[in-house]
Design a protein that fits this description.
Length: about 325
């Protein structure tokens, strides 16, 4: 089945049924990490050999959905909706992607993939009566130990730590030019989401330092954004589900430990994700364990959990 994106008119759109406060400040959330934050969930690719016949794609998940849990992302004609109250900004290798939240805000060209931002944006947008901007800063194959290494950890500051903050600054400086719908509004940085860990799993030094490095990264981001109490969600390295290696479990434990660091003042939430893993034979990318086998339901549920955790932190 083929789907296209449609922008429903204001009066008919499910998402515009809620009134956005006039000139309310834009709520900005930064979503950072490596390739799984970039987004690997397949939407509609269904080649029998290369995508396992479309098993585990977003299309197939919605088609088999009897509970209605996933159908809020499409209209009455089964076209993917484009939100007019939640916007995404992602600098990819192919160029800048900006616009209303829908499918396609990943590192791939076209509109054939989703990442955690997809359902995260729906959860946040459905609850907050203010415009929302999601700034994605993510690159595949990058470690916290080296590439995202924060200044507080000593040694050479990671290139992608610096680049992450630079891209956030650029996004904030160009909000109105890149999203005309947001013109005339100020912004508030409301939250930070971290989803990473795969590369650190393979290095003993990286595993041993992961907890302190992650806590230091959070402190550094808060300082750079001038938000010392910024709510932070840390997503578990959940690939493979409960059947995990010792090295992966080490990273999972370190991620949880980092969120309990007393320097962070408790406004950080560790979110388990391993329960969202789906079998390879029920997914489009059967050989890509590092990318959750490309299963769109996994990425959808991860984003859902991140969004709900963030809302809990915002209510404190």
């Amino acid at each position: 089945m083929k789907r296209v994106i449609t922008t429903a008119c204001l009066l008919l759109s499910l998402f515009s049924a809620k009134l956005i406060e006039a000139k309310a400040p834009i709520q900005v959330f930064v979503l950072a990490g490596q390739s799984n934050m970039e987004g690997q969930g397949v939407v509609d690719l269904d080649h029998e050999e290369y995508y396992n016949g479309g098993k585990g794609t977003l299309n197939s998940v919605i088609e088999s959905d009897k509970s209605g849990r996933y159908r809020h992302v499409i209209d009455g004609r089964s076209n993917y909706l484009k939100r007019d109250d939640v916007f995404v900004r992602f600098e990819t290798r192919q160029g800048l992607k900006t616009g209303g939240l829908s499918i396609g805000f990943t590192g791939y060209p076209g509109q054939h993939h989703i990442g955690p931002e997809f359902q995260f944006g729906h959860v946040i947008g459905n609850e907050i009566r203010k415009p929302v901007l999601l700034i994605k800063t993510a690159w595949g194959g990058k470690s916290l130990y080296k590439d995202f290494r924060p200044p507080l950890s000593g040694g050479i500051t990671g290139e992608y730590y610096t680049r992450m903050l630079r891209e956030v600054d650029e996004a904030l400086a160009n909000i109105q030019e890149e999203n005309l719908e947001l013109a005339g509004r100020r912004y508030e940085i409301s939250g930070f989401v971290w989803f990473q860990g795969w590369n650190d799993m393979y290095d003993e030094g990286a595993r041993n330092e992961y907890a302190i490095n992650l806590a230091n990264l959070i402190l550094g981001v808060r300082e750079a954004l001038d938000r010392p109490e910024l709510p932070v969600v840390v997503g578990e390295l959940g690939n493979g589900g409960s059947d995990t290696s010792d090295n992966m479990q080490s990273i999972r434990d370190a991620q949880r430990t980092a969120t309990l660091d007393p320097r962070l003042n408790g406004n950080v939430r560790f979110v388990q994700t391993h329960q969202f893993a789906r079998p390879a034979d029920q997914s489009p990318n059967v050989g890509h364990a590092h990318h959750w086998f490309g299963n769109a339901e996994s990425y959808f549920l991860i984003g859902d959990a991140f969004g709900k955790a963030m809302l809990d932190l915002l209510k404190r």
